[in-house]
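anyone else get weird line breaks when pasting these?? whatever heres mine. first is seq + tokens for prot A
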Amino acid sequence: MTHKTLQGQGNAHARRRSRLILAAVVAIVAIAGGTAGALAVSGGALGQRPSAVSARDLRWRSDISYLAARLPQVHIDGLTGTTRSAWLAAATRLSAEVPRLTNGQVIAAMARLVAMLHDDETQLLLPPSPVYPFVARWVGASLHLVAVPAAQRHLLGAQLTGIDGHPIGQVLTKLRAEIDFDDPGLARAREVGWDNHVSAPEGGWNDLVRALEFGYLNNADLLSWLKVTRSATAASFTLRTASGPRSVSVRLIATGGRWPAMAYLPEPLYLQHQNQPYWLEVLARQHAVYLKYNQCLPDDGFQKLAASALAVLKQHPGYRLIVDLRDNSGGDSEPFEALIAGIVHDPAVNVRGRIFGLVNGFTDSSASVDADNLQTQTDALLIGQVVADPIDEFGNDNGLLRLPYYGMVVQYTTAVINPGRVRFGIPSIVVAPTVRDWLTGTDPVLAAALNYRA
């Protein structure tokens, strides 16, 4: 899949982007198998501590040296967010520490090294990991469980306050060192996983869940490498429930393993049909056309759906269009341009108070750009919360740098999208769900769009 920027064509923000492209996912899965074999030959699997300086150490050091030299050459803006002296000093320190680190700790440290660039499109792709089976979401300044194993459904809505005795603030501080970000909202999104659209039956999740689609808080290997958890197979999660604080032991799900039956908080409309990249529903009673955009795919499916939505608006002059980009983590920006063009070319549709875009802290990458273009190129109003990446300086044509010995892959930036660092995708009307909204499946953001009066 080829992604490219559209700079120089009238809009520096418009471009095609993808965070975890198929090629990268395939590469890292293949690397997981290849790495295990290489490490077995050189004296240890991931997580085991070598007994002495060995060929294993020299290989890791060679990978670190290659990363330190090559990444500044291929990254579109060289070393961003750090200086050459600081970059080389950090790489030198890591190389010296290799004999004292497990293989997993070396990987985590390399992720921290890459994160020095503070570029969310440049990241070390972590190998697939066992995961802890829950889904957490930010509600204001606190984390709450919105999906848990069915046997523990009484924990739905509980606030996550710690892991293995570490307060959640300390845990997040450790995790954020591994995350490339300029926008704090992007770090919040990556901590809990913001791309959970999987091929699943309607109304549920599939039995086989890919670990790459879940957040760093679910990543059992990473939590172990960072010494957040004490055991390699289970962790104690501290929760604040309606009946008071409690600790719950949670066992991980092996990579590619079967998940238990899950229990969920009631799903508002925008969280339904998550297995579909985009879908449309005519809300006749509310006189609205609801267009949900889950994934920015490089095909013509969304364009066809957008044309259907605009056709309904022509047939029903009193209907409004609600374009929901919440939880869309990006991809290809081009399909959305067809919707914007259709709105702009119809003065009867492009009316203030008739077109709405919905965004939240999981609207990211090209979806953020799409939302901003909807607001700036049409008379649409954005409603919701600030997107994950309102600055979003860099773009990605999916550059991949593979390290020569252990085969780790760094996805790196190939385009500067927002050199002026203008904030975009900012909602005109800020509305945020409360804990009670989550518990009851209420959607105040959609309600604000349906009830808006100019």
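and prot B, same format (seq, then tokens)
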Amino acid sequence: MEYCRISVILAYAMSIYTLSSIYYFVRTRSVGTPFKDSLTKEQIQIKKESAKIRKNIFYQGVGLSFILLMYYKPFSKCN
């Protein structure tokens, strides 16, 4: 008999990531942003452009991953 445990492992991993993100968000609200506060207007513009490029690359990765997962269906045996 085959067991499919990938969903349980992923559920734990996603739960850890989500809870860690919430904890980080709550704990860093009062820390401030000393690096961001020290940037010049020109540096802030460079940072914004870089963030836009990186965001687009990330979204491309999400889209490509979605397409590949829908095509290959690696977890279909877990249903």
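btw re prot B: The chain has one domain: 6-78. The chain has a mean pLDDT of 89.
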